[in-house]
Design goal:
Elements (H helix, E strand, L loop, with lengths): L4 H11 L2 E9 L2 E8 L7 E11 L1 H9 L7 H5 L10 E4 L5 E4 L6 E5 L4 E2 L6 H4 L2 H14 L6 E5 L3 H12 L4 E6 L2 H9 L4 E4 L6 H7 L5 E6 L6 H6 L2 E9 L14 H4 L3 E4 L7 H17 L8 E5 L4 H7 L9 E5 L4
Parallel strand pairs: 8-9, 8-11, 9-10, 11-12, 12-13, 14-15
Antiparallel strand pairs: 1-2, 3-4, 3-6, 3-15, 4-5, 5-7
Helix pairs in contact: 5-6, 5-11
Length: about 325
């Protein structure tokens, strides 16, 4: 960990009291503006941003306010709202760190919440640490046994990570289901055994044919789409496991299917808040080790790099379906 962190905070804070930040000022309203840094407390450290990864599904939901009243989304998203939680920056002493901090030119973070970025891991690769931790929580919850058949519904950024990590966890086959052919091609290039170009409802026959007809040992619903949950239940084998990793804005619209009862399925919810500080640090270290040894590859999952000043146009473009879009990165060296 760092030492003399508080001294670093005060020297930076007094010289540069403001920083560029991306703000959602209301539904469908994005501003990039100078924000005054909060007064730091003892033990805080200032990070100068290098890169921050956009969590496209989550941040789009926050921007559009496409969620039901009374949900955890409703309690979390209040405007003005600062999006983002996958921040990589550097201290004044030159130490690279990642942190769960929003998209901004600088972040003040408690020293205990900083995660060092190892040498040899690029800033862009490091920025995947937060999304990787969500996938890691899902993999741990699934309890994949060696040789298990795994189905992943959804081939966005989180689905791509889940598919790779399922393979490293010992899955015998990993079948990825999505409508976007370019994303399926990426999944195949990163080790998926099979892909099915369909939505969850239309994939059942082909999925079952590919994995032997009895259903998968583990099914991950990473779509964030409410109707997909019932279809995920129909893809699991008897006494199989369904992991709900997507976070839909309208959970009241999710429905059960008869297979839950008839096949004795285990349904597990996996969520970022299920980890503590020590767990998050451990998962980041495991992710960096997997990137370093090549068992997990994220370097080619970035499909768009943007200047922070272009955030309004970038978020507007997220409302348009782009089958090739995966990772979207703010490059703060361009600010």
């Amino acid at each position: 960990m760092l030492t003399h962190g508080a001294a670093l905070v005060w020297s930076v804070q007094l010289r540069r009291p403001e920083a560029l930040a991306i703000i959602f000022t209301g539904p469908e309203r994005v501003e990039v503006r100078q924000e005054r840094l909060p007064r730091p407390r003892r033990g805080d450290v200032v990070l100068e941003a290098r890169s921050s990864l956009v969590s496209t599904g989550t941040e789009r939901t926050c921007l559009t306010r496409d969620f039901a009243p009374g949900t955890h989304w409703d309690a979390w998203v209040t405007y003005p709202f600062q999006p983002g939680y996958s921040f990589v920056g550097v201290t004044e002493a030159g130490a690279r760190m990642c942190a769960h901090a929003p998209h901004a030119q600088r972040a003040i973070v408690e020293e205990q919440r900083l995660i060092p970025v190892p040498d040899g891991i690029s800033d862009a690769d490091a920025s995947w640490f937060a999304l990787a931790s969500i996938a890691q929580i899902g993999i741990a919850a699934a309890g994949i046994a060696p040789g298990d058949s795994v189905v992943v519904l959804g081939a966005g950024v989180l689905g791509q990570l889940v598919a790779q990590l399922a393979r490293t966890a010992g899955a015998g086959s990993v079948t990825v289901v999505a409508r976007a052919r370019p994303r399926l091609d990426v999944a195949l290039a990163h080790g998926a055994s099979h892909v099915v170009a369909a939505d969850a409802a239309g994939a059942r026959e082909e999925v079952l044919a590919r994995i032997g007809g009895e259903g998968a040992a583990v099914v991950f619903d990473v779509t964030g789409s409410e109707p997909a949950f019932a279809d995920a239940l129909k893809l699991a084998r008897r006494f199989g496991t369904v992991v709900l990793l997507g976070d839909p804005g309208h959970p009241e619209e999710q429905r059960l299917a008869p297979e839950l009862l008839l096949n004795g399925l285990r349904v597990v919810g996996a969520y970022f808040e299920h980890s503590d500080l020590a767990g998050r640090r451990r998962m980041a270290e495991e992710f960096f080790a997997a990137v370093a040894d090549g068992s997990v590859v994220v370097s080619d999952l970035i499909t768009q790099r943007a200047r922070p000043q272009d955030a309004p146009a970038l978020y507007a473009s997220l409302s348009e379906e782009d089958p090739a879009r995966l990772g979207v990165l703010f490059d703060w060296s361009l600010a």
